[in-house]
Amino acid sequence: MTDYFAGDPRTHHERMLAGDPYIADDPEIAREAQRAVRLAAAYQAAYTEDAGAAQPIIEELIGELGAGAHIRPPLFVDYGSRISVGERTFVNVNLTALDVAPITIGKDCQIGPNVQLLTPTHPLEPQPRRDKLEAARPITIGDNVWLGGGAIVLPGVTIGDNSVIGAGAVVTRDVPANVVAVGNPARVIREL
Which residues does 54 contact at the CB level (< 8 Å), separation at least 6? Predict the structure, then answer.
């Protein structure tokens, strides 16, 4: 295997946090991922008994959870700690938020069921991909955004305030504020 990190003394975990290419075989990465799986499972189990009593678990899992924000389980994350959810945001069931890079969700957002927020990237070239090289780019969702059910937001995308992303849309590039975008790839169809 090619030594992609010659002369770089950082761990893969440090590279990941810096937004640089890394290989996900670092023990610290594995510990953080296992913590997220454990907390997400505990949150779902507690939520089935009492949503209010489950709140401390989701607050421990998510890096920053604004007042009045609500996330319905099940929830699937890589780490959870790199996710920020603004005040009064509602997240419906089956959110997949792969937070290798930071995911920022603004205030007063509506996130439909089965939405995917995907920050990881992989090389297009076959050999580095075979060697398990990966990286990530952050996702930013502005205030008062509605992501329709099944929408997919790809790495590095920013969605502006007040915009609506149609159900099933695949957002491959930035979406400005105050628009409706639909389709695959998502395209702006009207201003609000």
Answer: 43, 46, 47, 73
Give the sign of the dihedral formed by CA 148, CA 150, CA 151, CA 155. Answer: positive
pTM of the model: 0.96
Hey, what amino acid is at 61? L
pLDDT at 2: 84
Structure-derived torsion over alpha carbons of residues 57, 62, 63, 69, reported in degrees to the nearest 10: -100
Edge-first strand order for the sheet with 139-141 is 64-65, 83-85, 103-105, 139-141, 158-159
Each residue's pLDDT tens digit, 50-64 = 999 999 999 999 999
Active site residues: 122
3-state SS string over the chain? CCCCCCCCCCCHHHHHHHCCCEECCCHHHHHHHHHHHHHHHHHHHHHHHCHHHHHHHHHHHCCEECCCCEECCCEEECCCCCEEECCCCEECCCEEEECCCCEEECCCCEECCCCEEECEECCCCHHHHHCCEEEECCEEECCCCEECCCCEECCCCEECCCCEECCCCEECCCECCCEEEECCCCEEEEEC
Q: Which residues of the chain have pLDDT under 70?
A: none
Owner of token pair 């007040």? 162
Cα within 13 Å of Cα(159), Cβ side: 37
Instruction: Decide if 129 contacts 109 (C-beta within 8 A).
Output: no
